[in-house]
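hey can u check if this looks right to u? its 295 residues, i copy pasted from the old doc so theres a chance i mangled smth
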Amino acid sequence: MKTLRLSSAVVLGAASLTMTPLADAQTTTDVLVRDGSGNIIATNVRSFDENEAGSGLAVGFVPVAGNTFSFLYQANVVAFNDAAGQPITPLIAGLNQAFASGGYEFTVVARITETVTSVSTVGGMTTAVFAATGGTASVFFDNTLSGGVQSNTATGNGFDDGRLVGLFNIIAGTGFSNFTTLPDGTGLGGTRYDFTAGAPVNASFVSGLLGPISDLHFTSSQVLPPGTSTTSAFHTGVPNGSPDLYPTTPVGTSLLLKVDGSNTFTTAVPEPETYALVLAGLGVLGFVARRRRRG
């Protein structure tokens, strides 16, 4: 009987074609939103729309190139929007209603390290441009069973004391952020930052319809004065069953802003080259198997 013997390098090489992860593309995914107890809140959700009265705090900010500071954010989600940007009516009533009567909430908090990359003044308007160098954003779910209290903008309490749904690390060097101060002391700006999942997102609360969630993309507008976003502190809660990722920070004399944010999720989709290599690897292994059966 004739036996075909392939070197271990050939076999391992063929196997590696099917097992080695390659660079994947990212595509926006609609998500399924649940309450952590198996009940569906909303499906085909393209984005989380956060409260226009969300609060932002620039701690240590100075409008000078090279200045590094921390930017804090906290807001509750007010709507789940579809691909057309229209709100989806939740299948479970009670979004942002009192916990005692069966209400629940999703909140988004962040702490980002930013560096001023440039400052320009034209016509009395000063514009600072920022780059993110580190930090995280997190999504929390809270209700009576989750052990927290309902978020309160005025006190800053209750935004990060529920169940941690997902923790995302900022992708340094991506995105864009700027803020312009006008001669009368008012100001406005905008942000787009990209985050990647630091751990698997809890699918009992949010799961991608096209696959596991890999990234979060955050956009926002920022306004000075803060108006209805005025708060006394940031991140005053202690999450249920998770480490306290965001230490409490009083506002003090730091720059307080009104922040209207939203976020979308993406999932990794293998590139066409990945599929080709997988098929090639399977073909090699199939050829080896056939030759062995014929031997």
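Residues 1-17+273-295 form one domain.
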